[in-house]
What does this fold into?
Amino acid sequence: MPDHSSPFHLPAEPQQAESPSPGDAVTEARRREVVSHLQQMVEPVLNSSIVDLGMVRNLRVVDNYVYLRLYVGRHQLDLQEQIRDRLNQLPWCKKAYVQICTIPGVRTTLAISSGKGGVGKSTTSVNLAAALRLQGAKVGLLDADVYGPNVPQMLGLGQADVRVIDTPHGQRFLPLEACGIKVMSVGLLAEPDHPLAWRGPVLHKIITQFIHEVEWGDLDYLLIDLPPGTGDAQITIIQESPICGVLLVTTPQQVAIADVRRSIHMFRQVGVPVLGIVENMSYLLCGHCGEPTPIFGSGGGQQLAEELKAPLLGQIPIDPTICSGGDTGLPLTFTAPSSAPGQVFCQIATALHYTFDTGNGNLTNPYSVGCVKPAA
Ligand code: ADP
It folds into this structure.
């Protein structure tokens, strides 16, 4: 598997480990000079350094040449030329090679992750996609959860066939569509009721194909429903995609939080900003008196948010209609956006628009996506 880890976001050890000649003081000094120049380049919409946003990866300095990968959305392609111009001004630099890594047509790619399975990650992905769609955005949902690809069922797609089409760039998977959301899922490639038993290089190849070989058309947001945890599949997806940020889904209890804590390092290592925490199954509203009961404990999401200095974006109640919406293929947020859970998902969607569409966000300040209060 190629090594795509960011050279920027950890202190000295991993950065030096990536250098082709760690003993070479000149090369190291040049690398540092390149990093410091790139650090000053600000992505105008997110108002943060392209280095802090994890957009620059795989930096190599070889003699008088600089090589790097630039992970960008549709609207950020100009940065390639700007980086080249900037680095070519370095007196020793004969040429800077900036390889663009993008998902064609996609503006903003966001990942939805959880430390463990069953906490409501896919439910959050589907409902958030519906909320963004209801607010007028063009949305795609890539279900990359190789361990439990439930998105097709949650959107009523069952075992629909995926078509492959010829394009000028080669063959591409054509996404399906449900509730106005474009959908592609690893589950659509599997035999019904059979486990996905891909491992190692095959898994890597399939995931890479999923990221690069889907004909999404123009999208404002592509949400990627990641597999839970921190294994090879997760790391491949994060390293291969131009992810602008990740939302972490947890339930309030301490064991779930401990798992999320572990997964956070994976994102920090690659340099993907954590946009916030979504606490699911936060409380159950009594059908008679409306009193909220914290079935799985309380305060976990807030505790995690404070610890990670990332906002608690929303607290989703336990609601049987969320569950039945998932089973019948019509997400609750789509059918009842003014329900208590629907409101929270819509508020999170609004916070994302605020950050990614209007450019009012500043991801060096993790609170810029806004803290969404529970609707109940
Ligand atoms: P994950 O993707 O984390 O494995 P899912 O989104 O598949 O978890 O959710 C697991 C189960 O819990 C599903 O049956 C889903 O409908 C249900 N569920 C998730 N969130 C809620 C909620 N807030 N209220 C009721 N049921 C929920």
